[in-house]
Amino acid sequence: MTHKIAAVTGANGFLGCHIVTRLLRDGYHVKSLVRDKLKAQQLPELKNTELVEYQLDNISSIKKAIKNTQLLIHAAALHTRSLAQKKQILETNVTGTENVIKAIDNIDQFVFVSSIRSLMTTKKSLITETTPYDFAKFDTPYGSSKYLAEQTCLNYFHSHRLPLYLINPAVIIGPNDLQPSYNGKLIRKHLRQSVVFVTPAMWSICTPKENIHYCSLSSSKTCWCYF
Predict the structure, then answer these.
(1) Which residue from 68, 61, 75, 80 is spatially nearest to 105, judged by alpha carbons?
(2) 13 — phi, psi (to 5°)?
(3) Phi, psi (5° rounding) for residue 226?
(4) What pLDDT digit, counting tens, does each position of 106-163 carry?
(5) Which pTM does this prediction carry?
(6) What is the β-pairing status of strands 109-113 and 71-74?
(7) Domain span at residue 130?
(8) What is the spatial distance between Cα 145 and Cα 148, in angstroms, rounded to a whole number?
(9) 138: domain CATH number?
């Protein structure tokens, strides 16, 4: 029996591990793209996958890693609110995404894991999948990097007419956040009472399960956006 091949960047991350688990359950042969195979081997979620080392700043290594892939899910990103890391955020999230796209030869489907922050206009506004990002009102390094990466994906995939899925998760909370993620760290600090949550705004929350459902879809439509 021949299995379809799926490649996942950031497979060793919080959401990435959940994506891999779902793809394995759906019968895919999964390539887990990681920077360090030795560290990734410690994760039980990646045990039954093909671990492949790659670098987001090296197009050749990406091209080699995604060879013969039908489904490509780009979930790797640098998630931090630090203004001091603006350069690194843009290099990883924007230039890294550009490199992934440049490395694509022939795939059936591409999923880009973006963020709800790429849709922000003001901190108190209601948003939808079509809300334009407003640099003047809500310019953060992470949010703007995800918006710019989305535009890169849209420009390429509209011109090549390949199925593209954009996923804009809100704050992801769920099991197996072991590293932990940025939001996981914040919640742990709150539980230890070193940080007190006081927020006048609506804080949108989702689970990994709500996001991974869209990562193995297939459709004849060229571009879908999920919020």
Answers:
(1) 68
(2) -85, 175
(3) -120, 135
(4) 889 999 999 877 776 555 566 666 666 666 666 678 888 998 999 999 998 888 877 8
(5) 0.82
(6) parallel
(7) 5-226
(8) 5
(9) 3.40.50.720
Q: Is 146 in contact with 74 (CB distance < 8 Å)?
A: no
Question: So what's the pLDDT on residue 227?
Answer: 47
Rounded-to-integer distance, Cα 91 and Cα 96, Å: 6
| pLDDT at 226 exceeding the cut of 70 | no
Sheet strands (E) in 90-222? 109-113, 164-167, 171-172, 205-206
Q: Cis ω on the peptide bond leading into residue 180 (within 30° of 0)?
A: yes
Write out pLDDT tens, residues 66-96: 999 999 999 999 988 777 888 999 999 999 9
Residue 217 to residues 9, 146, 164, 167, 210: CA-CA distances in angstroms? 17, 22, 11, 12, 13
- Tens of pLDDT, residue by residue over 18-44, are 999 999 999 999 999 999 999 999 888
Mean pLDDT of the chain, nearest integer: 81
| Residue among 44, 43, 65, 46 at smallest CA distance from 54 | 65
Report the number of distinct structural domains present in the chain. Answer: 1
- CB 162 within 8 Å of CB 222: yes
CA dist., res. 148 & res. 133, Å (int): 10
CA 46 to chain centre: 17
- Length of the chain, in residues: 227
Q: Look up residue 227 and give its two tokens.
A: 């919020």
Contacts of 123 (CB under 8 A, 6+ apart): 138, 201
